[in-house]
Amino acid sequence: MAAIDGLPPLREVIATHELVAKKALGQNFLLDLNLTAKIARAAGDLTGCDVLEVGPGPGGLTRGLLAEGARRVLAVEKDSRCLPALAEIAAHYPGRLEVINGDALAVDVLAHLTPPIRIAANLPYNVGTELLIRWLTPAVWPPFWQSLTLMFQKEVAERIVAKPGTDHYGRLALLAQWRAEAKIVMVLPPEAFTPAPKVHSAVVHLTALPAPRYPADPAVLERVVAAGFNQRRKMLRSSLKGVHPRIDALLEEAGIPPTERAERVSLEQFCHLARLVAAG
Ligand code: SAM
Asked: The domain spanning residue 274 has which CATH number?
């Protein structure tokens, strides 16, 4: 049966182009176009937006993004075997799909994008967290993107949205929630993918806030948070000893008992502490 966009069904695309999934490239494909359209809709209103997609593979999500009205999609794919399948989509949507064959960690995408920009991807698991951290820590804020709609292993998604006092709370949660609104918008079972991975996956939607929730110097905040969570079971007076010579007094001033552990400290308290550390 033909797909709704008039292009061949994804199983046929994969068979035609012999796209046998490669584990080393984190290839777990989404073949249900209803599902990829749903993920595209979770990215928000795409009309008038350029969308950056990392790892389009055979193009299921790419087709969803274009069908949902993205002005342009810039797709960065490392596996050159996928290029002919992506070229068919580009021909179907003239002038709206640009494909770069390369490593998303190395390609300078900004030269190819015009604001407003959203990012949507079923990320290769091996590079997903690294890309997310890069997108969350640009030199200037607000960043070049308005929103990120990204598929992760469910456990990683839970680390992004985690609240203080929970097992998953840590650097990733603080980094994501300091300057963005982060929500899990979909949870998918392994069978949603071909081949099926071992674990559940989840789509996280992050919206960039115009400014950080609480003021802090990014480098100092990162240093305090990293030191705190490096030894997450230790009391902060001990894990943060190297951060400031009077750390006990600064913790008290920030309203944090020095005997507390990092996993129970809120974002607001970490930002307060980072400001006190920065002030000397
Ligand atoms: N988006 C497709 C889908 O939903 O069916 C494919 C998703 S698959 C989980 C990840 C894709 O990322 C694969 O096509 C893989 O070749 C590609 N990939 C892996 N590492 C990459 C990298 N460093 N840069 C760009 N693409 C990469």
From this structure: 1.10.8.100
